[in-house]
Amino acid sequence: MGKRVRQFGGKRVLLHYGGGSVVKSGLLDRVKKSLTEENITYVELGGVVPNPRSGLVYEGIHLYREEIFNFVLAVGGGSVIDSAKAIAAGALYDGDFWDFYSGDAELTEALPVGTILTIPAAGSEGSLNSVITHEDGMLKRGAGGECLRPKFSILNPKLVFTLPAYQSACGAVDIMAHVLERYFTNTKNVGVTDHLCEAVLLTIKEEIPKVLANANDYDAQANIMWAGMVAHNNICGVGREQDWATHDLEHELSALYDVAHGAGLAVMFPAWMRYNVDHDVNRFANLAVRVWGCKMNENDPKTTAMEGIDCFVKFLSSIGMPVTFSELGAKKDDIPKLVKKLGVTSHKSIGSFVKLYAKEAEEIYRLAL
Questions:
Q1: Would the pLDDT of 292 be above 90?
Q2: Contact predicate 120/228, CB 8 Å
Q3: Which of 11, 110, 346, 356 could form a disulfide with 147 if both were Cys (CB 3.0 to 4.6 A apart)?
Q4: CATH assignment of 162-367?
């Protein structure tokens, strides 16, 4: 790892991580040793939490002003990596880093970032994206730019053997959701990426039960780690319009209730699918046949499409995921608040497969009840 940091110009590093697991496992000490062996100095900033917060990002940017590091190394899962990217972007910006996440500034430069992945889920180890929750209003927003794509990422399946089953399952759903956001497209004649998407979904469908039965299954963990990378480095999205409305809908759930992102997606994606199935019934039916093993009803493909959605829900339940608001701990009375925080109106929409305005967003939240 130290050699990789030096390869990409790292001389003084911000070592960014979350809670105690990387410390207890000895991973952090191994990372420090590798840096020291390459004569690379470092400063530490731990404390990243799930749904990473703006406060720690501001702390990291302030630390940059004092310590002047030239590389950010994230040791952890998507939350740590997203926080590291936000610090890397804010360090070189004269204004408030949140400008990138609110859409008030374009992200064009950042310190180089490297990652050591400990949770396969968010795909941030290969993507150009970062999602942060601002504590003022608990707004969860994303930013992106090619400058945020990590210079290297180390994916070692042995590092996830101790991951709790619930986190593994949440990660699997997150990976599937990244694929589905690309799969549901209005772009025609994209058979190659259609089949790439389906292959990643099939991989998760086949491998996550193995991991939940035996967390030390190296091959299953390796396949899931690579699926997470492929799901969000955009190889599955090349040349096709992408949607991302379900992620927007879920971000408000995890911002308000502080639930795991994957768990929120498990609730929201089936609801989104049921609401939008009539927009392109054949696409939903193909997914049902190719991924969930349903038999195509040529006379009534919507029957097949709905069967596929039901199979998806059964799969989510089988791996311990919530599939309704009540299972997640969300409340019906909060739906107006969720819609307001989402920022959609009768004129402002999210998504591209089907544009969702305030009315549609509210109806999808209600379908998730």
A1: yes
A2: yes
A3: 110
A4: 1.20.1090.10
